[in-house]
Amino acid sequence: HVPKGYELRRLIVASPGDNAENLTTTNLVTLATMTGVQAMRLREGKWVMPFGLVYPEFNAATHVIEAPPSWARWGGYPPPDWTRICGVDFGYRNAFAFLWIAIDPDDRLFVYRELYCAQRSVPSLTSEFIIPAFREELAKAREGVASLQDEADRTAMARFVERPNVQALYCDHDRGAASILDEMLEVHRLPHTTPANKDIVDGINRVRRRLIGDKVGPAIFFVRDMQVLDDDLIEKDQPRSTLGEFTLYQYPKRPRIETSSDERLDLPIDRWNHGLAAVRYAVASYETEVRIAVY
């Protein structure tokens, strides 16, 4: 029996400033790059729960763009010397999302092509849409290189059109689907898929930082009309593209009751996040595998 008024626990809410002398430079940089609820908790010492849209920073007027005029030489695609990565979220009943992303010299990401569909198998999607999309882009790049007037420019760009300039394909951890995709892509000299960094909280934070960007502007953009397919098999009440998910993907209105020691209470509702999962896979995996970006 606990006596009335007996203190069982004491909660002391502290901020990093209370322990500043023990923080390393790495700690400080990490804290500085946090956004949203994570920043409020770990940087400001506030005991809060996430709510509302997962990506409130997204603004179609800012983040959705027309293909830049300079891409016209390359058939409307990014220049072939820009490195590509892809984000893949497997699905059948739920949407399958495959995103093509180009990285410019300033490390900005351009999501320039998208396959978003449902009720289609991986072999069918790969042979009917994914491989032809890579072939078309490569053909346009070769035409663009041939049109260059300067021989030195043609020589410099020629090495980027021998095969698609794809650095990595970051995908969901469905190795069965990934192995099928790998076998079909290997024939076309494309890299095998890489299991993505699927840390949800860290990945969301990284995407949000890119949406916010810096004083120059955002560090991620979505090209308008980037769909490879307008899929009529997606149910009518479901989003039909990654952009359609931004206004639907959200946190629960009430904190979820913890049902197991492994369940996280700060995660979004696992719904309407197939294209956005592919974005998160690509951004988080690219930044953690290749470099650490700070915005």
Largest sheet: 7 strands, mixed
Order of SSEs: HHHEEEEHHEHEHEHH
Shape: globular
Strand order in the largest sheet: 1-7-4-3-2-5-6
Beta strands, count: 7
Q: What are the low-pLDDT stretches, counting only 5+ consecutive residues below 50?
A: 259-263
Overall helicity: 25-40%
Strand content: 5-15%
Q: What would you call the structural class? A: alpha/beta
Overall pLDDT confidence: 85
Describe the fold and architecture.
This protein is an alpha/beta fold and 295 residues long. Helix content is 33%, strand content 13%. The protein has nine helices and seven strands; from the N terminus they run H-H-H-E-E-E-E-H-H-E-H-E-H-E-H-H. It has helices at 25-32, 36-42, 60-63, 122-147, 151-158, 175-186, 200-212, 242-245, 274-289, and strands at 64-65, 83-89, 96-103, 109-117, 166-171, 193-195, 220-223. Strands 1-7-4-3-2-5-6 form a seven-stranded mixed β-sheet. Strand 5, helix 6 and strand 6 (193-195) form a beta-alpha-beta unit. Helix 4 (122-147) packs antiparallel against helix 5. The radius of gyration is 22 Å and the shape is globular. The chain starts with 24 loop residues before the first helix and ends in a 6-residue tail after the last helix. Mean pLDDT is 85; it is low at 259-263.
